[in-house]
Write a structure and sequence with these properties.
16% strand, 40% helix, Rossmann fold, 7-stranded parallel sheet, UDP-galactose 4-epimerase, domain 1, two-stranded parallel ribbon, 12 helices, alpha/beta
């Protein structure tokens, strides 16, 4: 049966891939709610839907979630069966410079969309709050954080995402909203903001420039992550919508969506260089002194999702090569 899905931050990087996946794999109607600022780029949606025969099922509504959703905007949105809340300020460096901006976007904004969900009068089937691995803080060697481990935010961005999570928990406990929380980490793919590590590597390697590899203070151990393609994230969300019922959980269900393998940033840069047939030039930089608020290693356990029956299907190296090839043919997405 067709459903109506509201996706906040729909012109953002992860969300536009999710919209594309839904349009191409379901008969659902999608409303994209966005304010189209630093993170939201309408060109992403235009790229996806210009030749898509299903584009008539996408409606774009402008709204800034720092303000409550007005009755007029609510009318334009309609009655969603599913809400996927991806809208957020997500740039760590900006959060360090302007923490209050992130409180307004990620805490106040989350409260406003939760209030809208509370007004759906019981018609809402699922609400997914997208959080981040960064709420757990740095992961010591050998540690992969489980969904219910303690939080240890190391920058204002992660602290405000943790704050939004706690509001989601409170709204589930207080108002019985059907909320599920996901944690993702280091998502990459086509049309990513050019300041992010992978598009930045593609550009610098293409142009023969040095890639900065953030490392420990000795400048010998590079930072490491679990990278995952946005399409894999979209597939994981659809899996959750089809297979996870929050009513079966005594406490709010939380699920990590994570790439299968951990890779350090030097290895990743080398894969990107190999995909271009170019030499990797790089410098190691002490991440603590260079970028306060950034951590050497983040790591999540993907075991719960694996136990449910989901993990990424395509090898990370193949995904990286796909993105490199696409980006080199679309250099306009490397312009800052």
């Amino acid at each position: 049966m067709s459903k109506n899905v509201l996706i906040t931050g729909g012109a953002g990087f992860i969300a536009h891939h999710l919209i594309n996946h839904i349009l191409n794999n379901t008969d659902w109607n999608v409303v994209s709610l966005d304010r189209l600022d630093f993170s939201g780029n309408l060109n992403r949606l235009h790229d996806l839907i210009k030749d898509n025969p299903n584009k008539h099922r996408l409606k774009i509504v402008f709204h800034d979630l720092k303000s409550a959703i007005t009755p007029l905007t609510a009318t334009r949105i309609g009655a969603p069966d599913i809400i996927l809340h991806l809208a957020a300020g997500s740039h760590v460096d900006r959060s360090i410079d302007c923490p209050m901006e992130f409180v307004l976007d990620n805490v106040v904004g989350t409260c406003n969309i939760l209030d809208f969900a509370r007004g759906c009068n019981g018609s809402l089937e699922k609400f997914i709050y997208f959080s981040t691995d960064e709420v757990f803080g740095p992961a010591p060697p050998g540690i992969n954080y489980d969904e219910y481990d303690r939080y240890n935010s190391t920058n204002p961005y992660s602290a405000t995402k943790a704050g939004g999570e706690e509001l989601a928990v409170a709204y589930r406990n207080t108002y019985k909203l059907p909320i599920i929380i996901t944690h993702t980490m280091n998502v990459f793919g086509e049309r990513q903001h050019p300041e992010k590590f992978i598009p930045l590597c593609i550009k610098k390697i293409r142009d023969g420039e040095n890639v900065t590899i953030h490392s420990d203070p000795s400048k010998t151990i590079p930072g490491s992550r679990h990278y995952i393609h946005a399409v894999d994230v979209a597939e994981a969300i659809m899996f959750i919508l089809d297979n996870v019922d929050d009513k079966q959980y005594d406490i709010i269900p939380k699920l990590n969506i994570v790439g299968k393998q951990e890779i350090n940033n030097l290895e990743l840069a080398q894969i990107i260089a190999d995909a271009q047939g170019k030499e990797l030039k790089y410098v190691m930089l002490d991440f603590h002194s260079a970028r306060p608020g950034h951590d050497l290693r983040y790591s999540l356990s993907g075991q719960r999702m694996k136990n449910l029956g989901w993990e990424p299907k395509i090898d990370l190296t193949e995904r990286i090569k796909q993105v490199v090839d696409w980006t080199l043919n679309r250099p306009d997405w490397l312009i800052t």
